[in-house]
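Researcher: Let's try something more involved. This one mixes different molecule types, so please make sure each is placed in the same coordinate frame as the others.
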Amino acid sequence: MAKGKRSSAPPQAVKAVEVSREDTRESTKVNLADGAALKRALDEAASKAVLSAGYQEDQSISNLKIGFSLITCAFAALAQFYPRKYPDNWVLLAVCVLGYMAGTGVLNFYVAGREGDAFMFTKRRKGLGHELRISSSMQRYSEWYTMVISSSHDPSRDSVSMRTSVTKYFDSTGVLATKVLEADVTKLLNDWESQRKRL
Amino acid sequence: MNAIKSLISDQWNALATLNIRSLLLQGTNLGLIVTSALIVWKTLILFTGSESPIVVVLSGSMEPGFYRGDILFLYMSSKPVRTGEIVVFNLEGRDIPIVHRAIKVHEQDDAGNINILTKGDNNSQDDRVLYNEGQKWLERSHIMGRVVGCLPYVGQVTIILNDYPKLKYLLIGVLGLFVFTSNE
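Model: All components are placed in one shared frame. Result:
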């Protein structure tokens, strides 16, 4: 009996020290009054958790966004730096203006429409059905952070979500407890996977 | 002061941990904001037919109609210039356009080629003293546009920014700081 107790006590102590050292190594400190920064920190940590759970990030929409933004800016740069002056260059100007408007139209309606409030998309994981769409929302001045995992093709169909208060993840100085968040995200991922298996 | 220092260092830390992709996303975002203002200007150029649709009055040669610091809106249609219209014109070799009134117009032929003589309302002589050596008339190609609207006093800001260029850099720096620190 006594032998069992003695052998169980030291490992506990060692584990506690290891956890706190890891936390301080990758601790992110956020200004607690800045709601947008809190959400951003949670989204980033959740992305890392999803990646470490074995999913690969699908960056096609992000690439689309960057590509279209660059093209649109290129139209504007062309209009500005073309060597001929107005009114000789009015055809080029018209083309650039129309190209710019088309680019911003695509960006705002198509790309943003596909992305919505999602902050991460993943590719299909081996053995499982769907690509994931991970989104989150947090209202202004609210403490509640809602994270939704759904299929990226049909987000309205099935989804799992969790709603937690940010007070669970941040301490009073603004340090993010990454392990706690990772545990919650992993649990949500498991919920999703078991839901997919059932169907 | 300390609050500003910690704000800047927080932002710097946030920026320093970003990877290429995030930098690209933020950079293109900023680029879109800047270029949208540029495109609005180019669209105005296309719509008004004038290469500089908004100008600031820099001299008092059109008083009491326009004072130094007024903003003028220009529009250029294909209708020929008539006497009495206030036009803004460019002279070859000079980069600052002049806003005066057309007082004489001669039509050369039916093709719409006209010769124009201008004079500032507040000047005692016509603009032949301003024109280039040997130039007695303005032609349509010199005209940037007709004045169709005026906004008094607002142009003083542009004049001050031009006279004190350090203010311009300060303004841009402050605006850039705002864009970076208000990232929602």
